[in-house]
Design brief:
17 helices, eight-stranded antiparallel β-sheet, alpha/beta, globular, seven-stranded mixed β-sheet
């Protein structure tokens, strides 16, 4: 079978299968000989760790009416085969991004055209509320239209199964096969509005109550905590302020300019709470209000960034591992106080997340299970061990956390309620969350992390990233920052190399993935992986040291920062 060229693929989009607006846009790309033509058609959008995500526009490598329609028709076909003679229902939510509302209705139309009932949110809603709704309303599945914290030109499509978690094997691969077998002319676009149930604030209330129930432990002096919150133009304007008030917090200052939903994210370069610049307006407000804690969320409301006052009294953004360390340690400590730990509990983490979570789990007598990058793997853990072991909480380094299993995806709302309780408890006891974190490090060891992102866009960029992974796989570093590499894990080959003994063992407890991890003799961990949702290759670096006192914390952090810089040099990433 001959492989079509990019130009031939584009010509197919000039047929009567496609509407006039689409044909005109494709013809304009052909006429202008634009480089965008190549990027728009050289491949088909793929499902990565966060589902299908891409730049909006015409073409097989773009998110549009037809690629979304194809994905949804394939999903409908799969569901109808999996659940024959059953009444099917799918919950649909969408974030603030440009075209999300229209895409949400389009996806609903394809489902209802296939006889599947749809629960469609009337307005923007956070991704975790969609996950919750799938379980709460006993849906067959769920879909959310979002591109998380990607730039404004992106949108995306995430699929959830009936457990409220994102699709994982075998469903994901089977759905993808169905999707790619759908021809564009086979998509049923003519929906049946009688099969749509519109949902809104009444569902918010149920979700918010569940967040509070699963994320609060103590009656602390919540009224004394000064909070600054920003949704960074995203969906959590519908849930977080309401949840905080309902949980008993009184002093909540909102960054008003950023509470206005907008897919253009007009006040920030990137709506990513991992980046200090995204919280700059919130930090400025915190100076005026003398806030104890600053919190921001990403556009679809699953990630959260937290800033607290450091040892100098200045607001400092915690990284994802630091935030999750505080939340996890606090929860397990509360569970222990309540005698809820029996030895059949676990917390969830990922292979790129700090190893401090193994230490925390051991400290409290629970298990720490680890999966691939992406919260869908933590969701899978919960399902796999349901009825056997109790899931307590889980997190990953990319600013995601979940409390309990009522949501099967990272959830900023419940995590924010919990974080504010911890901040209020710390304040009532004469310390800050930052000092609480240092106390944890004194007990368990000081872990410090750095993330190095290298962006390579387009077809050439994708090939460069492949070549970089090939080189790191075939030529692993001998040492990093002066410490010998003792172990290499290759999740694509599912092997673990013990360097000194030159022994390679199989490693089949985690599915295959294009990820490498190097461990050194002094406890350094470096993970290398291509992003599943962005044109990036990522290097996750974790270094560690002991910490005897609060007074030596800053000097130790500076030394670990220098060590990360040296590792960057050793890997030739400068």
């Amino acid at each position: 079978m001959s492989v079509l060229s990019t130009a031939e693929k584009a010509q197919l989009w000039l047929s009567d299968t496609f509407d006039q607006e689409t044909k005109d846009a494709v013809q304009a790309l052909i006429n202008s000989n634009s480089p965008d033509l190549e990027d728009s058609f050289y491949r088909e959008l793929e499902f990565g760790t966060g589902g299908m995500r891409g730049v909006m526009g015409v073409g097989t490598n773009r998110l549009n009416k037809y690629t979304l329609g194809q994905a949804t028709q394939g999903l409908a076909n799969y569901m109808l085969k999996q659940f024959p003679n059953e009444e099917l229902s799918v919950a649909i939510a969408y974030d603030v991004r440009n075209n999300s509302r229209e895409f949400g209705k389009l996806v609903a139309d394809v489902l209802t055209a296939n006889g599947i009932k749809v629960l469609l949110f009337k307005d923007h809603r956070p991704t975790p509320e969609l996950s919750f709704t799938v379980r709460d309303r006993k849906c067959t599945g769920g879909i959310v239209l979002t591109a998380s914290h990607n730039p404004p030109e992106y949108n995306g499509y995430k699929v959830y199964w009936n457990d409220g978690a994102q699709i994982v094997p075998p469903h994901d691969e089977a759905i993808i096969k169905e999707v790619y077998s759908v021809k564009f002319e086979e998509i049923k676009f003519n929906g049946n509005d009688e099969l749509i149930e519109w949902i809104g604030e009444e569902q918010d209330d149920v979700y918010i109550d569940a967040c509070i129930e699963n994320s609060t432990y103590q009656n602390v002096e919540k009224g004394n905590l000064n909070i600054v919150f920003t949704s960074i133009h995203g969906t959590t304007y519908t849930t977080v302020p309401k949840a905080l008030e309902k949980a008993g917090f009184k002093k909540i200052d909102l960054v008003r300019e950023q509470m206005i939903p907008s897919g253009n994210f007009p006040t920030v370069d990137s709506p990513n709470p991992e980046e200090p610049a995204a919280l700059e307006m919130a930090m400025d407000l915190a100076k005026i209000t003398n806030a104890d804690i600053v919190i921001g969320t990403d556009p679809d409301g699953d990630r959260l960034g937290i800033a607290v006052r450091n040892l100098e009294g200045e607001m400092q953004l915690l990284n994802g591992n630091q935030c999750n360390t505080i939340l996890t340690y606090y929860i397990l400590n509360e569970w222990r106080k309540l005698d809820k730990i029996t030895g059949k509990e676990f917390i969830g983490s990922t292979i790129v997340t700090s190893d401090i979570f193994f230490d925390i789990a051991q400290r409290f007598g629970v298990d720490c299970k680890v999966g691939l990058t992406g919260f869908k793997w933590i969701g899978k853990m919960i399902r796999d061990f349901e009825g056997k072991e109790k899931f307590i909480c889980g997190g990953e380094e990319s600013f995601g956390f979940m409390t309990g299993d009522f949501v099967r995806d990272k959830d900023s709302c419940g995590s924010i309620v919990l974080a504010c309780e911890i901040a209020a408890w710390c304040k009532a006891n004469g310390r800050t969350m930052y000092e609480y974190l240092i106390e944890i490090y004194q007990e368990l060891g000081l872990y410090y992390e750095g993330l190095i992102n290298i962006t390579k866009k387009g077809r050439d960029g994708a090939e460069e990233i492949q070549n970089m992974m090939k080189n790191f796989r075939e030529n692993p570093p001998k040492s990093l920052a002066g410490s010998l590499v003792k172990e290499v894990k290759d999740f694509k080959e599912q092997t673990k190399l013990l360097v000194a003994a030159n022994v390679t063992n199989k490693m089949e407890d985690i599915p295959k993935s294009n990820v490498l991890i190097y461990y050194t003799e002094d406890g350094t961990k470096v993970c290398v992986r291509p992003s599943g949702t962005e044109p990036k290759i990522k290097f996750y670096v974790s270094v560690k040291d002991s910490l005897a006192s609060k007074e030596e914390f800053e000097d130790k952090i500076k030394a670990l920062e220098a060590k990360i810089q040296q590792i960057k040099t050793d890997l030739q990433l400068d």
